[in-house]
Amino acid sequence: MSKNTYYDLDLSQTLSKNRLVGLWRLFKGYRLFYLGATTALAVATISRTGIYLVLRRFIDEIVVPRNFGPDMLIIIVMFIGLALFQGTFTFISGWLAAKTAEGTTRRLRNFLFDHLQRLPFAYHAEAQTGDLIARATSDIDALNRFFSDQAIGIGRIILIFVINFVAIMQLSPRLAWVSVVATPAIIAVSVYFFSRVSKAYEAYQEQEATLSNRLQENLTGVRVVKAFARQAYESYKFDQENWHKFSLGKRLLSIESLFWPISDIICGAQLLVSYYTGAVMALNGEITVGTYMAFIALVIWIIWPLRNLGRLIVQTSTGMVSYKRVAELLKEQREPLLEGDYQAKDNVTGEIIFKDVCFEYEPGHPVLNKVSFNCNPGDVIALLGSTGSGKTTLVNLLPRFYDPTSGLITLDGVDITRYPRKYLRSQIGIVEQEPFLFSRTIRENITYGVQRTVSEEEVIQAAQFAAVHDVIISFPNGYDTLVGERGVTLSGGQKQRLAIARAVLKNPAILILDDSTSSVDSETEIQIRAALEQLMQTRTTFIIAHRIQSVMDADLILVFDKGEIVQQGTHEELMKTSTMYQDIFNIQTKIELELEKEISSVNI
Amino acid sequence: MSTFDEFEEKDYGKLSTPILRRLLALLMPHWRWVVGFLLCIAFVSIIDAYTTYLSAQIIDEGIRAGSHAAIVRIIAIYGGIMLFQAALAFGFIYLTGVLGERVRYDMRKQMFNHLQVLSLSYFSKTPVGWIMARLTSDTERLADLITWGLLDVTWAVVNIATAAIFMFKINASLALIVLAMLPLLAVVAFQFRVRILYHYRLSRKMNSKITGAFNEGITGVRVIKALAREDDNLAEFSELTEGMYQASYKAAWLSALFLPTVQLISAVGLGFVLWQGGLQVELGVMTVGGIQAFVSYVTFIMWPIQDMARVYAQMQNAIASAERIFNLVDTEPDVKNRTRTIQTKSITGDIRFDNVHFHYETDDPVIKGLNFHVKQGETVALVGPTGGGKTTIVNLLCRFYEPTSGTVYFDDVDYLDMKLEDIQSRIGMVLQTPHLFSGSVRENIRYGKLNATNTEIEEAAKLAGAHDFITQLEKGYEQDVGEGGNLLSVGQKQLLSIARAILAQPELFIMDEATSSVDTLTEALIQRGMERLMAGRTSFIIAHRLSTIKRADKIIVIENGQIQEMGNHRELINQKGKYYNLYTRQFRQELEAQYDIFTHPEASQT
Hints:
Structural class of chain B: alpha/beta
Helix content of chain A: 55-70%
Number of helices of chain A: 21
Shape of chain A: elongated
Oligomer: heterodimer
Strand content of chain A: 5-15%
CATH class of the domain at 9-205 and 247-330 in chain B: Mainly Alpha
Largest interface: A-B, 164 and 152 residues
CATH superfamily of the domain at 10-172 and 314-334 in chain A: ABC transporter type 1, transmembrane domain
């Protein structure tokens, strides 16, 4: 896979059965930062521990013996020096950790975005949009928290614990052991608590979603609510969900409000046992007063951070789940865009041959069966047939959204699977019945995908050509009007015309058209039809036809039934050879007759 | 920028007296809870400062004085106080948390109820997402400020005050040194906090843009592939992630710098304290325990300052949230009951539009001088191009909007003199895109008449022609219809909304006929259901199907907000005007669809 400037690592190669190994591989390129962050953290922690040991000397060598000479100043300078040291390294640690976490996440986001848009069509046809978005956003957020909080946080707590424990060991092994008696209890309680909280929190969050849905339904259905005068009923229903959320919040809080005091009591008891043991030892002269003071400062750093360990452990497990969900996406194979050994020098002319082309989405269920036809550059090919007869599948094969299961498609005499997809798609323009527009400005939507800078005049010309310019300038912001939820809502016909304008700018050699014009008035319809006809000139055009007009002028008409071409030829040929086609055509005349009858009947 | 700038959210708001008063009003109904948690946290805070003092006493009265008994006594007091403090902690966490939930509940309820009163015009110009954010993130932020924020500030203030008292008790001159540090600490902390929050909020905004980009990248993947735009897209997307990176990185970087800076200031202060403290021990006015106490006070005094700085930064955002919430709650509905209204038991009778004008914006009239008279029981078909004003007429008829001039008469009474509820509760409406609510089929039909019995519901479903498909559903009437009815087909949704309207027994029936095609069987069922609804009732149909239009007693052709033609089918056909053109065009289309020439070529042989 080609590398690019937006991510320097192919993350699909980092996957591993062991999730921790997989996560570690995601750090690649940032591992030195991560190790640096951890080392800096260790230095900072040692410095802080050092501060308390200096304090001990201050008491034992200065205050108690009343030796206030230059020694005192030296100690105070050491004291501030260590603080400076601690501060600097704390900062370095936080800075490197942020670089690691945010850098890794940015790379992951970029990679995943690119990965998703390059996964084959077949994958997107199956996948649920909501699920993909959840993986790309909330799961990535969870991983970001893992990188920035949990991965560093767990290390921090362990480091603090070990360093302070070793320091107390130096002061007095007995004190050291006394001060960690309750550690297992604190960890156990916090893990138990946070796993319960995370469950209660999930329920609370789910209710939040329910409540939002309720609200959204009310807002989108406001006309129904008002038409039935159901305001009071709506308030009642909302209140039920609202109250339920309040109750769930109360439940969550009752767990929370129990944990902190209980862990306070355990930690407090541990603290007091330590204080007492230390004080008695100091009283008996086993340790100095300075040692006692250093000890009670250090012991706090052993105990209190442990309460957070439970939270970090529980959150890590959710981070692991998110990693698994993201990894499932990463292991999907991309569709290679540049692969293909035939490098065309120029644009294609548009001569297309289908030879015995078969296609099936699922083995054993053919959607296209032995489709064969030829067309010359600039031909118009009309596809007729019922929904599901294979028309859309056939046009999906041209830009290689799918490849045929068997058979051969050639373009300008070359097998299309030999063309790189990117080149092939640059030669094909598609105008759908109700095209997807992006929430950008109208101008950006028209120039979308045109791989060159386009002048204002060109955009306007294209819009005029597509008979949509007048509509656009009727908006207050003209071409800068936003499309979508935060801007204007366009009708199906307007969207279609923007897509036509886009196709004009793209100027492809091959055109795929869905010719049904959705509900527009007749004048607009005439304009669209004229635009389309002009667009079709000089291009090989495939029309998914819904109307007789678009069929009559076609160079080749393909009549589909159940994935097979049952008739093909020009209008004249089919009129001579196919009674079925004659019948289709005659309907038009028949309709006119019926209309006359209908009109004259009103006065009877 | 877009025309929707008014919906761009500003992040900062200033605390003003009216806002403060309204914030207090939110807490007033629950003042006992507020007093409770404030008392708890004040005690906790005092105890926090007091235990430091106790630690010092262990040294001075216990170790230095050589008294084992004193040590035991002080540790015992310490233990007792800790237990007490744990009980208080339980109290304040529970009280504050539950109060926060309660305030959220109250605010959501108040806003939701107000939304029910607001007019349709409000919803047509306010994006759904904007309103939703008021009830979610803004509510969250505001409730946090007036509960946890208040708690943190109380703790901080009491903590500093108590610590100051104990420090002065131990040694006044050292206490002054420590207090002199406070302003510096405060300024640094506040500056950091405001900046950190700024970048944090920026990163949240970038995050929602990234979500939007993923959404488009996935739903628009066909277009992206067809246009081979992958590389450009990635480049654009990476600008977003770069922005996100910069914002989160800056926030994290500042946070990383914040604590060390504050700690360093404390360390310098501590150096002073040790130096001065040492000298004072020499003079005999300071004890070893006293030094220990000061070391603790100086080390921990940054926490209350920190807390206050955080609350201060959050407050600016929360006030902006409050302004938006109050703005929503203060919005007056455009359409509401007049001060004097007439009691009406029925809206049956003739309906008359007398020179009705309507516009949303003054220079852009939508309806221009509408005059028509509909007799009780007649069916009116409204036809004409999209945007011509058909929907607006229906909205005026339901009094979702009121005419800017002219009058609508129900049985010769100006409908502005009637009560909104009296009008709207007697209207039955079937929308073009039927809107169902999540819940069961039964619940959705019952929406038409809340106290309907199961028999009545099934009766209505039978009349609407919906009963057969309902009984074929796996759970029948109890089947869940999904969010917005998504688990049902469009045709099924239409049948249910007709059943809903039948159950309501409306006096006036309004229907926006669907343009989307459904299968022929369902179509026939819908037609029959409609006929049953229209029988004997005054009905307004925004009509798209010829059969509906032809049957109407009165056809009104609307274009550019004006009546172009009006009459029955025969009259209008003979006029050979706009209606004639519209009809013949539609006729061809319908027949084409009926013969289904391209979907079933064999159909033509019959």
